[in-house]
Amino acid sequence: MYRSGAIVDDQGKMNNFAIEPEIYVQENPRTGFTPYAEMVNGRLAMIGFISLLAFEAISGRGLISFLTNL
Known about the structure:
mainly alpha; two-stranded antiparallel ribbon; 2 strands; 44% helix; elongated
C-alpha cells in the first residue's frame, strides 16, 4: 500500500506533512532473558574460552601471569 502523505484540504491547499510510521509489537521480544539472548551469550562465552585456551597455548603462560609481567 502506497501512501504519499500529500493531502488537499477544504481550501485547496496542499498539506505535505510526514506520515507517521505504523507501530507494531513484536510477538517474540529479542531483549531480556529470552532464549535468543541466552544462545548468543553462550556462544560468546564459548568463543572467549577457546580464545583464552589458544592464548595460553601460543604464549606458554596464563593470562594472569602475562598481565602481571607487562
